Amino acid sequence: TWCNSSLFIAFGGQSAVTGVLRCANCKLGADCTNSCSLVNGGAEPGNGTHQLSAFVADIACLDDTVLVADNSNFRVQAIPTSCMSAPCNVQTFTTGLKYPLGLAVVDNGKWVLVTLDEGIVSLRPQGMVQSDSWSNLGDCGYLVEASGRIWAASG
Q1: For residue 132, which phi and psi values (nearest 5 degrees)?
Q2: 67-76, pLDDT tens digit by residue?
Q3: What's the pLDDT tens digit per position in 91-103?
Q4: What are the b/e assignments for 21-38, b being 16+ CB within 10 Å?
Q5: Contact assessment for residue 28 and residue 12, using Cβ atoms and an 8 Å cutoff
Q6: How far apart (Å, rounded) are the C-alpha atoms in residues 67 and 147?
Q7: pLDDT under 50: residue ranges of the chain
Q8: What is the pLDDT of residues 123-145, one digit of tens each?
Q9: Buried-exposed string 74-111: b where 16+ CB fall within 10 A, e elsewhere
Q10: How far apart are CA 139 and CA 118, in angstroms?
Q11: What are the beta bridge partners of residue 62?
Q12: Would you give the DSSP letter of residue 35?
């Protein structure tokens, strides 16, 4: 995900390193791996403030933060885009979600949609649930807003 002139990459593993990388100074077609640094996560999965579960499902940009769907920890974390490397001032954006999978910041940041095992919830930009039944589509994953519509991968 591109956010404030940096590329953010989420990755996870069952018993290995899991986290989010921030890669600065990236340009299309150029290798920028030398400028990547860990901004959240660590040597193994966990549920602490600076840890992520083994299944980091999605990331999205909301103003000056990167939102991370931390699936097995039932939360969405917020990482400030100004942080160059860990430890960052990671905050819990929202918690208590049943297996968050996809994230989409829609309507120019007015709300955030999160796909779950049992539908899609709508959150305010501060992380509070706006509607816990935005859609009852069922198990769905990736979300994106494009061409004035919201698209969700089903199943």
Answers
A1: -85, 5
A2: 999 999 999 9
A3: 999 999 989 988 9
A4: bbeeebeeeeeeeeebeb
A5: no
A6: 22
A7: none
A8: 988 888 886 666 666 667 778 87
A9: bbbbbbebebeebebebeebbeebebbbbbbbeeeeeb
A10: 5
A11: 65
A12: G
